[in-house]
Write a structure and sequence with these properties.
The complex is a heterodimer. Chain A is of the alpha+beta class. Chain A has five helices and four strands. The longest helix of chain A is centred in the first third of the chain and has 30 residues. The chains are: A alpha+beta, B alpha+beta.
């Protein structure tokens, strides 16, 4: 049976994702990733509008403290990404679900040293557009926790050092930049 | 330096290109600066899609539970409704666009249910009796199981209020004339053969 590019045909009671082409599955993955970002964003903004940014940020941190380990257990197991060095961490960062929404570069210096540059971050662009300076706390408080939790899932000794962090007053060449290092 | 996104291109060695011709079933090999989702097999990508679906359900649940623990269930529920009032239109527009579901009947609505990002985490049967009449039976719902396990009766609010509201919003998106009726809705005191069951009906206009 020919694989489908969409579901414009008749209702099929036995429909499954297997019936789509690989290209369609890739489009769906990207759409699902955007969907996750929106769910997270709408929750953040709803809480912020009701109780203020402090409460929203506190919830955000709590949500990701629970969410990241779950995400990592599932995705690293599915992808069979296991190890305890920076190379393993970089492999995971390349394939984490949220990464569809960002454009990043990895400067892979050695299996124990790499620099991650986020070139396009829709969340940062939204916050800069909003103009209330929310990026100062989100990027300085929530994001280091997210990246540290991610790194420490593989090895608690991996050091996470922000090299460039918003607000973008001293740089404009990227959204943010992070160094990951493991001294052995 | 490698650039990661679904749309990047990079110069790779012939050897690396060769190894990437195969459809990968995991990423257990060495760090590949040029890895792309296209390098994975379709079967693997379908598994990944199911994992994403599970993850987005959990993400929504973590926000709800965090707020509930912090401020209380009523406030968390009120926020949940606000979030999904916004999210529902985006959700449906995404499905309609991706799958090219363009008609305005019950068949379109049932197709959209089948293709919802939430669907892989639930099991159900969509029965289309005619293009104007359908029944959706959810046979496995992790959210209901969690609520029942919690034992505080949260399913009354989530299933009777929020879920009904979401089904109505979804039906209205395709056609405001589609009527939504809950046939079986938790708490499951009088039935045990499914989680919930909903009927969708589009009555013919006069003269049709």
């Amino acid at each position: 049976m020919k694989k489908l590019a969409d579901y414009s045909g008749k209702f099929d009671p036995h429909f499954s994702y297997d019936k789509f082409t690989k290209e369609t599955i890739l489009k769906l993955l990207k759409a699902y990733s955007e969907y996750m970002l929106r769910i997270d964003g709408f929750w953040y903004l709803t809480v912020m509008n009701k109780w203020g940014n402090d409460e929203a940020l506190d919830c955000d941190i709590k949500v990701w403290e629970k969410g990241i380990p779950r995400e990592m257990q599932t995705i690293s197991s599915l992808l069979n990404v296991h190890g305890d060095d920076v190379a393993t961490l970089m492999k995971y960062i390349q394939v984490r679900p949220f990464l569809w929404n960002y454009q990043c570069e990895i400067d892979f210096k050695s299996p124990n040293h790499a620099v991650l540059t986020v070139n396009h971050c829709p969340t940062l662009l939204s916050m800069e557009k909003e103009g209330t300076g929310r990026e100062k706390r989100l990027c300085h408080e929530s994001e280091p926790k997210v990246l540290s939790t991610t790194a420490h899932f593989f090895n608690p000794n991996i050091q996470v050092v922000p090299l460039k962090l918003p607000p973008r007053t001293d740089y404009s060449d990227c959204s943010c930049q992070w160094e990951f290092r493991l001294d052995r | 330096m490698s650039r990661i996104s679904s749309e990047w291109h990079n110069v790779t060695t012939e050897k690396a290109k060769g190894s990437r011709m195969k459809d990968l079933t995991d990423y257990s090999g060495k760090f590949d600066p040029d890895i792309k989702y296209e390098n994975f097999s379709k079967d693997f990508l379908v598994q990944l899609l199911r994992a994403y679906a599970d993850y987005l359900r959990k993400l929504d649940g973590f926000w709800y539970l965090t707020l509930k623990n912090k401020i209380g269930d009523d406030e968390a529920f009120a926020c949940d409704i606000k979030v999904w009032e916004k999210m529902c239109a985006i959700h449906l527009e995404m499905i309609r666009k991706l799958y090219k579901i363009n008609s305005g009947d019950v068949a379109a609505l049932l197709k959209a249910f089948q293709m919802s990002p939430w669907r892989p985490t639930c099991q159900g049967i969509a029965e289309l009796k005619s293009p104007r009449h359908g029944i959706v039976t959810i046979t496995s719902c992790p959210t209901l199981l969690a609520l029942e396990n919690e034992g505080k009766g949260g399913e009354e609010k989530i299933c009777q209020q929020l879920e009904l509201q979401l089904f109505i919003m979804q039906a209205n998106f395709f056609n405001p004339q589609i009527q939504v009726r809950a046939l079986k809705v938790p708490p499951r005191t009088e039935y045990s053969d499914c989680c919930c069951q909903w009927e969708f009906r589009l009555e013919p206009k006069e003269g049709e």
